[in-house]
Each structure stands twice: as structure tokens, then as C-alpha cells.
Amino acid sequence: MNGANLSLPEPIERVALDPARNIRRRYSISVSLDLFGMIVVEARWGRIGAHGQAQRHAFADRAAADRHIATILRRRGTAETRIGVPYELMIAKI
Question: Please, what is the Cα angle at 77 between 8 and 73, to 5 degrees?
Fold first, then answer.
């Protein structure tokens, strides 16, 4: 696989905020290439201001990585029914 010609998706960051209920959650997804040309999808989540957790998965092709990202985003879409607050997309600051 030639990673030099591969365009990777932009990082995604979502937050769920409800100050009245003390809910301050963050979820981010980033995609990169490793030294062997594998696509690495990293998800980070946790309370805003805390260290949080991270999980990485490596994929041989872009389609598999895209399916994994879609699965993650679909789960984040159910946050309103699970925690009572929807995740909202954060615009990256440059």
C-alpha cells in the first residue's frame, strides 16, 4: 500500500456539555499512517480536563477504516438517549 497518495479524513472532535448536570465529555477521532502503511484510527474520550482514555485500531485499507469511524460516530449519535446530552461537533481552531 502506498500511503503517500492516500488522503486521510480530518480529525473529528465532539463534545457533550450540560453544566446543570455536570456533564462535560469529549470524544475525538484522528486518522494517521504508521511506518508500515497501515491506516491507524485513534479514538480518545473522557471528561474534559481529565486524562481520559484512548484506543487505536490499524486497518489495511481505507474502506475498513471508514466503516470503523462510521460505527464510532453512530454510537456517539445515541448519546442523547444514553446520557441525556447529544454530542456536538467542535470546529477546529487554527
Answer: 20
Contact 66, 84 (CB under 8 A): no
pLDDT recorded at residue 53: 97
Contact of 45 with 53, CB cutoff 8 Å: yes
What tens digit of pLDDT does each residue of 58-85 get? 999 999 999 999 999 999 888 888 888 9
Are the CB atoms for 23 and 83 separated by under 8 Å? Answer: yes
Cα angle 84, 75, 43 (rounded to 5 degrees) comes to 110
Coil, helix or strand for 73? helix
Q: Are 18 and 89 in contact (CB under 8 A)?
A: no
- Is 93's pLDDT higher than 60? no
Helices marked H in 1-94: 62-76, 79-83
